[in-house]
Amino acid sequence: LSDRLTSVFSSLRSKGRLSDADIDATCREIRIALLEADVALPVVKDFVAHVKERARGAEVSQALNPAQQVVKIVNDELIEILGGETRRLRLAKTPPTVIMLAGLQGAGKTTLAGKLARWLRDQNHVPLLVACDLQRPNAVQQLSVMAERAGVAVYAPEPGNGVGDPVQVARQSIDHARRQQHDVVIIDTAGRLGIDQELMAQAADIRDAVSPDEVLFVVDAMIGQDAVTTAQAFMDGVGFDGVVLTKLDGDARGGAALSVRHITGRPIMFASTGEKLEDFDAFHPDRMAGRILDMGDILTLIEQAQRTFDEAEAAKMAGKLASGDDFTLDDFLEQMMMVRRMGPIKNLLGMMPGMGQMRDQLNQVDDKDLDRVAAIIRSMTPGERSEPKIINGSRRARIARGSGVSVTEVNNLVTRFFEAQKMMKRMSQGIGIPGMPGGKR
Ligand code: GDP
Ligand code: MG
């Protein structure tokens, strides 16, 4: 018998693919969300095209409605792109590991140098900060302060020796690191306000002088669309291996992350979220995807819906669908509790195509009502629960007394149950339930 049930269920499930109309409508929204998040237009176009393609091949989900399903694909895809090749810092086989920072002035390089040094120190490395920004009068001083706060050493030209040569300083710092047993060297470089050939040339010279294991491009998440041109210029002028996104504590939606990743193909490795040393973390693609889509609540709900309505429960429910008569009050209660676990019901009603048959009943129920329903069903004998037809007037009175509710409430519950059971039966006969994927609409 159960084999037959399983095949009924799988035919229900395999019937539908997402319709083009559903996909197009949702992708229009996604496109707007991405543009509002400051993702560059060509990137948006590519991305949405890619998502559409994937969504067309996707089977209709049991737990999500079509729009939610497309949002989920978008989210998954974003996470994959943002984190596909996330990797740890590459440490040199023979120390010191050399990390060079590049980026526009104000991007947050010097701040990041301190954060990275502290982070590495906490992992038992012995970093050396190197001041190669000799452009701005206070730059060296600023890095020294950072080093002191991070509790690490700094290498800088002696003050008062005139303007030093950053390439020279970089080269010497490596020897210094070797002598002083530093296993990581972090080179802070100068930036300009805009993209500038001289600056690029200097960064490239420093790069050639020290052959860094990692060049990290530091970019301010707040600069939005400009991130693309800046990233491209640094890619062409210096080249880099990874990206650090700064100022994520601001209100930028973080579209720069997707743009830079997409345009340069380089992974985002770290995120900076404030001026203090501890405002720093490895980059989390899932958080960033949620931020770019700005659909945090929806995404959380989708996750919850999926988790709750997992395959096992779906399969179990499928068994009950085969014959409406098999659907008992225990199942009814279990379904309600399943919904309950997902959080406040009102937020969730719209998310439950798989439970379409329950939606009307649930619409009238809030969490407190659910407790009463549970109390009523628990006041029934096992026999009554599995064979609700036997619940006559005197049984209803007893159940009402036992659960502390009125007989009318018991009556309402029993009526609602029989309605649900009828729908189950209809569904099992392949008539379909409105709103149920695979069913007729
Ligand atoms: P650099 O020119 O690339 O070296 O940039 P700085 O490290 O000097 O940073 C420029 C300014 O941005 C400073 O005022 C920093 O305190 C600030 N800053 C750096 N990173 C962050 C961040 O993640 N969040 C915030 N709110 N400010 C930051
Ligand atoms: Mg600086």
From TrEMBL:
Quick one: which residues bind GTP?
103-110, 188-192, 246-249
Give all residue intervals belonging to the SRP54-type proteins GTP-binding domain.
267-280
Q: Which Gene3D superfamilies match?
A: P-loop containing nucleotide triphosphate hydrolases, Signal recognition particle SRP54, nucleotide-binding domain, Signal recognition particle, SRP54 subunit, M-domain
On the tree of life, the source organism's domain of life is: Bacteria
Q: Name one GO molecular function term.
A: GTP binding
- RNA-binding recorded as keyword: yes
The main place the protein resides is cytoplasm
Spell out the Pfam families in the cross-references. SRP54 (PF00448), SRP54_N (PF02881), SRP_SPB (PF02978)
InterPro entries according to UniProt:
AAA+_ATPase, P-loop_NTPase, Signal_recog_part_SRP54_M_sf, Signal_recog_particl_SRP54_hlx, Signal_recog_particle_SRP54_M, SRP, SRP54, SRP54_GTPase_dom
Q: Name one GO biological process term.
A: SRP-dependent cotranslational protein targeting to membrane
Please give an example of a GO cellular component term from this record. Answer: signal recognition particle
Q: Which family does it belong to?
A: Belongs to the GTP-binding SRP family. SRP54 subfamily.
Q: How does it assemble?
A: Part of the signal recognition particle protein translocation system, which is composed of SRP and FtsY.
Query: Which HAMAP family did the record assign?
Result: SRP54
Quote the entry's note on domains.
Composed of three domains: the N-terminal N domain, which is responsible for interactions with the ribosome, the central G domain, which binds GTP, and the C-terminal M domain, which binds the RNA and the signal sequence of the RNC.
Mind telling me what this protein is named? Signal recognition particle protein
